[in-house]
Amino acid sequence: MGVLHAIAAAVLFAVALPNEVFPYGVPWLSLLALAPFFVALLRTTRLRDAALLGAVFGGLSTILSNYWLANFGEFAVWTIGGPTLGYIIYNAILAPILRRLAESPRHLRPFVLAAAWTAYEYFKSIGFLGYPWGLAGYPLSDIPVLLQHVEITGVWALSFVAVAANTILAEVLVSADDRLHPTPLGPAEHGIPRRYTSQLLAAPRRQLPAAVTARFHAAASLGVVSFIVAIMAVFGAQRLRTDYPKVTEVDMVLVQQNIDSWAIGAEELGLRRAQELTRHGIDAGESKPELVVWSETTLQRPVHEERDFFLQRPDGDPFLPFLSEIGVPLLTGAPVVELDTETGAQRSYNAAVLLDNRGRMREFYGKRHLVPFTETIPLWEYSTVRWFFRELVGLHGTWTPGPAYTLFDLPNTENRQDAAKPLQFATPICFEDAFAYINREFTRAGADLLINLTNNSWSETNSAQTQHFVAARFRAVENRRTLVRSTNSGLTGILDAHGRVIADLPMFTESYLRSTIPVYRSQELTFYTRFGDYLPVLFLGLVLVGIIAPLRAERAHRTAQ
User: Fold this and answer.
1) Which of 222, 251, 495, 511 is buried most deeply by CB count within 10 Å?
2) For the residues of 180-248, what is the DSSP string, one character each?
C-alpha cells in the first residue's frame, strides 16, 4: 500500500509541475500532491521501507516530469538515465531522514518535514550536479502576489509553505485511521492548551482519541501556514504597485530561428534563417535597433579562427558581410577559443559574444555552470576517462568553465540617466538562468539587465521549455532586473522586474520579437541579492539539530541505565 501511495504522489507531483496539459503547472495541486507520499512515510515504521518509498517516488516523479530528457540525441541514455538514477538515490536517502524527523512533536512535525524537504531542494540545486528543476514551490509562482516575496527569500519560502500544506493534509489522513483508537494520554500531554480542552477534560483521562489531537494540531498548523501565505500576499500586492526605477529603454530584436542546430546540415540553414529574421526585425521599426540577440549555438564555429568561412558562408548570404549590412551590434552564442601562452593549452568556451559590424568581438562570457557529463566531465585529463566517453558514449570533447562573471556594456544608450556609470548586461547561457546564485553574482557585479541565450529545440516538447521558463522567472524578481530570453525555439520573451511577461513568442515557431526593453537600476540591492540562500541553510541547520539532539538524548538515556 505504501508503494502505491508513493506512485500516486509521483503522478500528482508531475501534474502539478509545468507539463504538456497544464503549461505552467497547477498551483492548488502542489498543496496536496505530496500528501500520499507523506502518509506512507508516517505509516511506515522501518527506515528500510522508507528508503524504498523514496526510491519509488524519486525515480517515477523524475521520469514523468523530465521525460523530455530522452530526446537528447545520442546521449539520451545518459541525460534521462543519469538524473533518474540520481533522484532514486537522493530520495532513498531523504525518505529515512524524513521518517526519523517524523518522530518530532506533532505540533512541530509539519514544519520540521517541510524545512527538511526545502533544505533537500536547495542541496539538489547547487554544485556540480545541481539541477534546480521540479521544486515544490514552482507551481505557486504562477500567482503574481505570491511571487514577489522571493526578493527576500528566493524560491525557498514557497517550497516550504507548499510542502507544509502537504504534510498537514497527511497528518489528517493518517489520524483518520486511528479515530476509533483512544490514546493513553490526556489533553495536556498532547500539547493542547487547557483553554481549548474544557469539554475534553470531562472525558475519562485516558480516552482522548488520537484523531482529536491530530485535528487540533492540523488546524493550528494550517493557521500558521495560512498566516505566512497571507503575509506573502500582502507584501506581493504592495510590491506589484511599486514602480522600480527605470534607467532607460533599449530597442532590441530577438530572433527565434526554430531549427535543430544539431541536425546534419543545420549549421548554414540556421544561420541563413537567423539573418533573414533579423532583417525583418530591423525593417519592422522606424529606426535601427540598438542590439540584435540570437540564441545559444547559433554560431557553431569561433568567429575569429573561422573568419574565412564566415566571409563566404552561408552560401549567397555570408555572415560577415551581413553584419556590415545591418550595422547593429549582435549578441549571440558561439564557441570561443583561447590559447594559454604559458602552457600552450587550448581553452574552449561555450560563450556569449558581442560582435560589432565588422565581426570583431567586443567581449565574451564563457558559460560557468556547465552541464555535467555532457559539457564537462570530471577527470577528463586521464586517458582512460577520455577513452570511455569517446568510444562508449560518443562524447569527444568538453568545454572549459568561463573564467569570470563578465558583463557587457549596453550599446547606444545615450539617453541613460546615469551617464557616469555605463549600463551593463549579463548573459547567463542555457540553463544558467535557472541557477539563482549565478544571476545573483551577475547582479552583485553590476548587471542592470539579464539576457539569457538558450537552445532547447532538442527537447521537442513545450513542457521542457516552460519548465525552464518558470525556473528562470524567479531571477527577475529576486534581483528586480528585467530578464530577456532569446532562444532557438522557445520560450523567447521578456520579463519585467515583477516577473510579468511583457512580450513573448509562440514556441517552436520561426519568428522575431522587436521590443523596447525596460532597464531598471534600484539604489539598493534586494535582500536576496545581498544575502542569498540563507533560508535553506538555516533549515538545514535546524534539521541537523532535529536529528542529532534525539540521538544524543537516547545515548545519554542508555548511559544512565
Assistant:
1) 495
2) TSB-S--TTTTT--GGG-TTGGGS-TT--BHHHHHHHHHHHHHHHHHHHHHHHHHHHHHHHT--PPEEE
